[in-house]
Amino acid sequence: MIDLLALCAFNAAYADAIDSDALEQWPGFFTEDCHYRITHVENEREGLPAGIVYADSRAMLEDRIAALREANIYERQRYRHLLGMPLLLKAEGDGAEARTPFMVARIMATGQTELFATGSYHDRFVRQGDGQLRLRSRVAVCDSTVTDTLLALPL
Predict the structure, then answer these.
(1) What is the per-residue pLDDT across 60-112, written as a single tens digit (0 to 9) for each?
(2) What is the mean pLDDT of residues 46-67?
(3) Nearest to 84 by CA among 1, 2, 3, 7
(4) Spatial contact of 62 and 27, defined as CB atoms under 8 Å apart
(5) What is residue 3's DSSP assignment?
(6) How many Cα atoms are found within 13 Å in the side-chain-facing hemisphere of 19?
(7) Contact at 8 Å (CB) between 140 and 41?
(8) Cβ partners under 8 Å of residue 54, min gap 6
């Protein structure tokens, strides 16, 4: 059974991988046949599948990181995640569903820091055969319907 402590530890490691620029580790938090999407609250409320970022496999997440490192040109930046306590909605067998609030500050190369995004992760977790907890699905639902075009890093 997946419990609250396991979710907290998972989310802390997930945020640390992004915040410490260990982006190559990020896809490893997901199952091979995962779903990852960044959207906003109105799209989610209306059941619209469109996302600002969309991936339906770990390979797509790996490609996104490779593109960030090798192909994309964007102003260098980093994030600092502040995560709330997960709300465990359902836990059965090797699966769980949870919702976790987040705030993300963006720190630019100049040192300028701003509140970049707030929202909640809508997650479906699974404990795999190797005992590791992974995301089958993470939808980052942002509170604002206005999205900065410089959304380069994963939330």
Answers:
(1) 999 999 988 887 666 788 999 999 999 999 999 999 999 999 999 999 989 99
(2) 90
(3) 7
(4) yes
(5) -
(6) 13
(7) no
(8) 36, 37
DSSP-assigned letter for residue 149: T
Q: Which amino acid is at 79?
A: Y
Q: How many CB atoms lie within 10 A of CB 49?
A: 10
Beta bridge partners of 78: 107
Contacts of 99 (CB under 8 A, 6+ apart): 86, 87, 89, 120, 121, 122, 123
Q: Name the token pair of 22.
A: 């260990």
What is the maximal distance between C-alpha atoms in the chain?
Answer: 47
Residue 125 · residue 10 · CB < 8 Å: yes
Q: How far apart are CA 80 and CA 106, in angstroms?
A: 7
Q: What letter does residue 23 receive in the DSSP assignment? A: G
User: DSSP per residue over 65-93, as a string?
Assistant: HHHHHHT-----EEEEEEE---EEEEEET
Given a contact cutoff of 8 angstroms between Cβ atoms, the answer to whether 139 and 50 are in contact is no
